[in-house]
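Input (structure):
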C-alpha cells in the first residue's frame, strides 16, 4: 500500500509512505515526525506510526493563504477517521459524504482507491487523525464479527466504497481518552507496537459502539438546538473541573433547562452530570499516573471539595477505590493492557 499527501502549492509531497499489505506481527513499528515551518506561508506537523498493514497519521496544519491538500491511497483500505476541525471543504472520490468537515467527529470508511481533496481556508487550524488499515490487518482485529456492522462488511466483500454511517458523529469521552493514550504513549520497540495495536482495537470497539448505539434521531432535535447542545458539550470539556450548574449552562447556551437535559441525553447518550463525572474520572486516572499525587490533591484538582465524595465517585466509575488504584496502578495498567490485547 502506498500513501501520499501533497499540498498542491508545494512541489514535493509532505507524506510519502509505503507498507506491506499483509499483517505481520513480527514487523517493526516505524516512527516519523515531519515538521515544515515557514513563517510567511505555512506550518505543517505530522506524527506517523507505521507497520505492515497499518499507518497512523496525526497531522496539524496552518496556512496564511488558502491551500488544497490531495491525499491518496493506491489500494483498498479501511480508514478510522477522526476530525478536529470544521468547515474544511471535502471531496473524496467514490464516497458520497458531507461537503464540509465538522469539529470533533469521527467515522469509518472503506475505499478501493482513495483520492481525497481538501480545501483549507487561510488562518484555519487544521487537525486530523487517520488510522489507515489494510483489509488483512482489519480482518485480524475485527475477528470477522460481521453482526456488528453487517452492511459495512458487505461493502468490503463486494469491494464497494462506503461509510460505516452516513454522517460523521461526535467523539465520545472513551474515544477521546484512547486517542490521548495513543498520542502520549512513551513505550518503545515491540512493546510500543503491541500497545498501539491494542489501542487501535480498543478505539475501533468504541467507534462501533458509538455508531451502533447512536441515540440521536435527527428529526427530533432541530439544527439550532443541536448546535447549542454541541456548544454545551464543549463548555463542559473545556472546564469540567469548575463545571457550571445546569441553570448556568442553560443560560450560557440560551437553551431552557428542559431542552438541555432531554437533548443532551438524546444527543450524547448520557446526562450532563454523568458526563462531567466521566471527564473528571478520566482526568483523575491520568493524574494518578504520577505516584507523587495524593488522593486529596487529585480530588481537589478534579473539582471535588470533599475527598469522600471523590472517592465514592471514583470507585463507582472504575470499580476500585482511588487508594487501591493509586497503589496498584502499575499492576492495573498491565492487567488492562493484557486483557484488551486478548479481546
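Output (sequence):
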Amino acid at each position: 500500500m502506498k500513501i501520499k499527501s501533497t499540498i498542491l502549492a508545494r512541489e514535493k509531497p509532505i507524506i510519502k509512505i509505503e507498507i506491506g499489505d499483509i499483517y505481520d506481527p513480527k514487523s517493526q513499528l516505524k516512527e516519523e515526525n515531519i515538521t515544515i515551518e515557514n513563517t510567511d506561508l505555512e506550518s505543517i506537523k505530522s506524527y506517523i506510526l507505521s507497520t505492515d498493514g497499518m499507518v497512523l497519521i496525526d497531522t496539524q496544519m496552518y496556512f496564511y493563504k488558502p491551500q488544497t491538500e490531495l491525499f491518496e491511497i493506491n489500494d483498498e483500505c479501511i480508514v478510522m477517521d477522526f476530525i478536529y476541525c470544521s468547515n474544511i471543504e471535502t471531496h473524496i472520490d467514490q464516497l458520497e459524504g458531507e461537503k464540509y468537515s465538522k469539529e470533533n467527529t469521527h467515522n469509518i470508511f472503506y475505499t478501493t482507491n482513495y483520492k481525497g481533496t481538501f480545501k483549507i481556508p487561510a488562518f484555519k487550524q487544521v487537525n486530523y487523525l487517520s488510522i489507515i488499515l489494510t483489509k488483512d490487518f482489519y480482518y485480524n482485529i475485527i475477528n470477522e464479527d460481521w453482526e456488528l456492522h453487517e452492511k459495512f462488511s458487505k461493502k468490503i466483500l463486494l469491494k464497494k466504497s462506503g461509510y460505516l454511517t452516513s454522517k460523521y458523529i461526535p467523539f465520545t469521552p472513551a474515544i477521546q481518552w484512547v486517542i490521548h493514550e495513543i498520542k502520549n504513549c512513551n513505550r518503545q520497540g515491540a512493546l510500543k507496537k503491541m500497545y498501539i495495536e491494542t489501542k487501535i482495537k480498543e478505539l475501533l470497539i468504541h467507534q462501533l459502539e458509538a455508531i451502533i448505539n447512536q441515540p440521536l434521531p435527527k428529526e427530533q432535535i432541530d439544527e439550532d438546538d443541536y448546535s447549542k447542545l454541541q456548544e454545551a458539550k464543549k463548555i463542559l470539556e473545556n472546564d469540567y473541573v469548575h463545571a457550571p450548574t445546569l441553570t448556568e449552562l442553560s443560560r450560557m447556551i440560551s437553551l431552557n433547562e428542559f431542552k438541555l437535559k432531554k437533548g443532551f441525553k438524546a444527543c450524547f447518550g448520557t446526562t450532563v452530570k454523568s458526563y462531567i463525572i466521566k471527564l473528571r474520572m478520566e482526568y483523575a486516572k491520568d493524574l494518578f499516573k504520577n505516584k507523587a499525587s495524593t488522593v486529596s490533591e487529585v480530588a481537589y484538582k478534579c473539582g471535588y471539595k470533599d475527598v469522600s465524595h471523590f472517592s465514592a465517585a471514583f470507585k463507582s466509575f472504575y470499580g476500585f477505590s482511588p487508594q487501591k488504584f493509586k497503589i496498584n496502578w502499575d499492576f492495573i495498567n498491565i492487567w488492562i493492557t493484557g486483557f484488551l490485547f486478548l479481546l
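Notes: The longest strand covers residues 42-51. DSSP finds twelve helices and 13 strands in the chain.
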